[in-house]
Amino acid sequence: IEGAQGARFQALSTLLPNFSGNLSFNRQKISLDQFGFNFPGFPKLIGPFNVYDARLSLSQSVVDISALAHLRSRVQSLQAAKYNAQDARDAIVLAVANLYLDAVAGTSRIEASEAEVNPAKALFDQATDMKQAGTVAGIDVLRAQVQYETEQQQLIVLRNTLAKQKLSLARAIGIDPRQPIELSDRVGYHAMAPMTADDAINRALGQRPDLLAASAMVGSAQSEKSAAQTGRLPTLHVTGNYGTVGQTTSK
Q1: Helical pair 65-133 and 209-229, crossing angle rounded to 10 deg
Q2: What global pTM score does this model have?
Q3: Which position has the higher pLDDT, 88 or 177?
Q4: How many Å apart are CA 26 and CA 31, to the nearest integer?
Q5: Cα distance between residue 103 and residue 168, in whole Å
Q6: N vs C: which end of the chain shows fewer Cβ within 10 Å?
Q7: Are 117 and 148 within 8 A, CB to CB?
């Protein structure tokens, strides 16, 4: 964006007034022979004498079609750069939001798994007590133990997955991966309003930064082409200056 702004100011500078100042000092001699003046009684050399010249100049473009087209091209390039920056920002927001939602879903899976572990442990303890009482066979205890350990293993896997998801989230938002993260915002389900295919296409064409950037770049290229085509046309500039000339600085 900063580079595009600089290019825009550079293109604009050709259309703005141009002020300049000049201060000069000359000590010179003039030979009249070189100018064809050779009269009896007149000196052949004049000088040496001093000439001081202090002057301010102003130049203003009045008609320059090529410069105007070039400026339009740079304005559209600046707009395209802003859309590209917005597109990059949206991509970052989308990536971070997806990682955060994955971590939130992982937390919910752990809570659901913990809810499964507690009943499995209760069933295992109940089967153990009933076996000791002689009311069930050992196979029932083994079946309950396998179910309980399976639920525990699943809970361990989900906790490790959540730890990896938090590491990915920390890396995406640029914090130290060793810093513990607590997900404070839980996202609930919200049904989206129905949208037709035509509405979705029109919304994308009017709001997607990547499409808007591409459109701005096309406009910039067209303006640059126009600037090249009109570069052969005549231009009109007004130039003026004001200053003093004399043999001393007091004049």
Answers
A1: 160
A2: 0.67
A3: 88
A4: 16
A5: 9
A6: C
A7: yes
